[in-house]
Structure formats: C-alpha cells, structure tokens
C-alpha cells in the first residue's frame, strides 16, 4: 500500500475513534489555536501580564481596577479553549481544576466558582452582558461588538508571534 494512502487511512481511522482533531484555519492572520482573552468593554484594562491573568483566572484577583468584580466564564470540559487555559494558566488537569474551585468555595475565599458555558457564542454573549466578565474564546470566533474587547497578554494580541495562549 502506498505511504500516502496509509497515512490517509490512519488519519481517517484516528478521526473516527476520536484520537486526532483537525482544526482548519478560519481567519486570515489568525494562527489556529490562539485563545483570545475577551472582557466586557467596561473593564478598564487593555493589557495583562500572563502572571496577572493567572491570578484573575485563579480567583486570587477578584476585582478589576475601578472596583469592578471579576466574573470568570470558562468553557465546558472537552472544549479546546478550556484545555489550553487549564494547561497554560492553571497548570492543572480538569480534576485538579474542579477540586481547586471546590476547596476555594469551601474555605469561603470566593462566593462562587467560574460559570461554565457550552460554546464560544454563549461565552461572548455573557461577557457582553455582564460588567467585569472575562472569558477565553477561540480568536477566530470573537464577534465584533461594542460590548466586547480582546485583551493583550504580555502586550501581544492573538495571532502575534509569541502570544502565550495557543
């Protein structure tokens, strides 16, 4: 069997059993895999250092400048956006993430954990409607909206060389 045909057959089988996910490039200039940090447009910050973003994600920083409460919105398990955020920001797997938030709530360090959503569309709709909200969305799926803005991370936007959330 020719090598190219074997590779094609392997990929077809892998896709069927769920071992490989192929992600097409959906937007010119956007590197596949970049996860945009989207916030409600009322949030005053435009750029966060990765370490500060990690504190926000961990619930260690619960207020934006200007006393606005942070509302964390994260994708449901199995979403690529959640996997990237857990790996790059939390440095945890899903079980550790759940345990982290259960313990944080149990110790009364925070009133509630992140809100979980099933799609990027729901995440951006919630961020648009909740002052202080933040979420992590596939950069190719961020809608143009006056109520949303994409934050820079370490002074880099999604798609730029060295962007940390990919």
Short description:
With 166 residues, the chain is α/β, with parallel strands linked by helices.
Number of strands: 6
pLDDT < 50 stretches? 4-9, 11-31
Gyration radius, rounded:
18 Å
Number of domains: 1
CATH superfamily: Periplasmic binding protein-like II
Overall mean confidence score, pLDDT: 86
Main sheet: which strands, in order across?
Answer: 2-6-1-5-3-4
End-to-end CA span: 36 Å
Largest beta-sheet characterization = 6 strands, mixed
Would you tell me which CATH topology applies?
D-Maltodextrin-Binding Protein, domain 2
Q: How much β-strand is present in the residues?
A: 15-25%
CATH architecture: 3-Layer(aba) Sandwich
The sequence of SSEs as H and E is: HEEHEHHEHEE
**SS-based structural class?**
alpha/beta
Secondary structure tally, helices? 5
Overall morphology: globular
What's the CATH C level? Alpha Beta
Q: What helical percentage do the residues reach?
A: 25-40%
């Amino acid at each position: 069997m020719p090598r190219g045909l074997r590779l094609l057959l392997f990929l077809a089988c892998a896709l069927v059993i769920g071992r490989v996910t192929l992600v097409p490039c959906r937007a010119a200039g956007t590197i596949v895999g970049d996860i945009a940090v989207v916030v409600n447009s009322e949030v005053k910050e435009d750029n966060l250092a990765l370490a500060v973003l990690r504190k926000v994600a961990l619930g260690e920083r619960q207020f934006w400048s200007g006393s606005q409460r942070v509302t964390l919105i994260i994708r449901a398990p199995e979403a690529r956006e959640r996997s990237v955020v857990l790996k790059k920001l939390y440095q945890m797997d899903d079980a550790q993430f759940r345990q982290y938030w259960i313990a944080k709530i149990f110790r009364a360090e925070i009133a509630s954990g992140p809100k979980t959503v099933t799609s990027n569309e729901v995440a951006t709709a919630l961020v648009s409607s909740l002052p202080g909200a933040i979420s992590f969305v596939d950069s190719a799926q961020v809608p143009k909206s006056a109520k949303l803005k994409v934050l820079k991370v370490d002074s880099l936007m999604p798609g730029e060389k060295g962007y940390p959330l990919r």
